[in-house]
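$ ./design --mode recover --in tokens.txt
reading tokens...
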């Protein structure tokens, strides 16, 4: 609870700047929490809110961060109404009970990037974060350029490269 109070105390309506990753995380959390509440999965909803709280605490001050703090406040409302009303009164005029549920941007629910595992001889040696839909040739080139992969190959010749787009690159030596 003190963690939430600290977070609400960091709200800055005049902050400028944008954090796309935090915006994406906030919209995904709003969507997931709404689904969890409808399914009466309050424990899951609270866990997702705390996950978003951790992401907000790590983020630099920006307009996106302030918007995410406001979203957390609205998400906490159904589960901790007294805390939410008090914090909302400090940030805004009116009641949180009268505030609208945060809108979700469907474009922000889809991830633009994926993490691709790189294996050498069947063992995980590195990971790459690349744009979704990166071509096979580019994934192969990036995997072979990795310092960890070069160390694992120890100068051995690569006989076969297996690429599963957006998931895996396996180098057989």
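writing sequence...
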């Amino acid at each position: 609870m003190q963690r939430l109070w600290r977070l609400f105390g960091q709200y800055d309506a005049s902050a400028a700047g944008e954090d796309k990753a935090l915006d994406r995380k906030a919209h995904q959390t709003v969507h997931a929490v709404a689904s969890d509440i409808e399914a009466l999965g309050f424990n899951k909803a609270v866990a997702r809110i705390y996950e978003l709280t951790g992401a907000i605490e790590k983020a630099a001050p920006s307009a996106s961060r302030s918007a995410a703090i406001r979203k957390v406040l609205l998400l906490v409302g159904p589960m901790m109404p007294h805390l939410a009303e008090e914090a909302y009164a400090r940030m805004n005029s009116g009641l949180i009970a009268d505030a609208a549920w945060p809108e979700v941007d469907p474009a922000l629910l889809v991830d633009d990037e994926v993490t691709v595992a790189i294996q050498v001889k069947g063992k995980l040696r590195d990971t790459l974060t690349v744009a979704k839909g990166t071509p096979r040739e580019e994934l192969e080139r990036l995997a072979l350029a990795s310092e960890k992969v070069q160390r694992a190959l120890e100068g051995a010749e690569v006989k076969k490269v297996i690429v599963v787009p957006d998931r895996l690159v396996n180098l057989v030596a």
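exit 0
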